[in-house]
Amino acid sequence: MKKWFAVIGNPIAHSLSPYMHDTWLQELEMEATYIPIHVEEGKLEEAVQALKLLGCSGWNVTVPYKEAIIPFLDEIDESAKHIGAVNTVVKTVDGKFVGYNTDGFGFIQSLGPIKADDRILMLGAGGAARGIVHAFKQRGFKNIAIANRTYANAEKLVEDLQIGQALTLQEAEDNLELFDIIVQTTSLGMKSNSTTLPIKLNKIKEDAIVADIVYNPLVTPFLEEAEKYNVRTINGLGMLVHQGALAFSYWNELNPDSDEMILRLTEQLGGNYVNR
Ligand code: ATR
Fold it and tell me: Which residue from 33, 176, 235, 245 could staple onto 203, CB 3.0 to 4.6 Å apart?
């Protein structure tokens, strides 16, 4: 049977994953396809049963099902267990469905070359931050601060993952010169017309990297602010593509071309913006 893959979520219509994976499948001349599936609220279990029954070879999971899917899988990889969320499901040769999380790895790949002693400031302590902090920890990074609007949530993340230090957003802003990599993961990143920023950047180091996990808009208000300080900025498109490439390699044992895909998607999103 022709292999097929999917992404499940709600909403799903605007997902870039079908274009990305279909393009890679074609480029690598694989007889397979990748489709978006909108899963209605309360129908996740049935949807997973259907995917298994209909011979899906693997699928991605997006909002709001990354945590909820866990009980419906046969095994969860250690990292996904720690993070408490799955974004990739792989069907093994013996027919088991195993959950992985490739988001944090994807994010770190998108940063390009960085040093293990770089000091990292996370803004936000939600699900996305959790995946990224876990990936930094796995890569041996030790200097991680987590600043969040609700301080207790930053403390919880530090405690759960046994790494880093919790800060208030004010403390992060006041001590910004201490950090080499600043990662914006709060929901503020998504409001393109918002002028609210999680922190002010006036104390930023001149050689800092500022990353936002959002890719639409390509230049978020936070990155726009960072550009005023002439620092290197990175949007969330690299994370999207690299997490997808890792999922693709789990399914197909082939590595697709991520750099070319970042350029294509940038163009599709109407940007000539390329991460510097
Ligand atoms: P995700 O899975 O994208 O990380 P999430 O788990 O809902 O989403 O987390 C959202 C993050 O954005 C949280 O860190 C949240 O802070 P709180 O823990 O205080 O809720 C942060 N956030 C949301 N709205 C915010 C705002 N207006 N200002 C600052 N932080 C905000």
Answer: 176
Q: Mean pLDDT in each 10-residue stretch from start to end of the chain (276 residues)?
A: 95 97 97 97 98 97 97 97 97 97 98 96 97 97 97 98 97 98 90 77 98 94 96 97 98 97 94 58
Identify the residues whose C-beta falls under 6 Å from ligand 1.
124-129, 148-150, 153, 185-188, 198
How much distance in Å is there from the Cα of 150 to the middle of ligand 1? 9
Give nearest CA residue, ligand 1 atom 2.
127
pTM over 0.90: yes
Which of these is catalytic: 2, 3, 66, 205? 66
2 is catalytic: no
- In contact, 120 and 141? CB cutoff 8 Å: yes
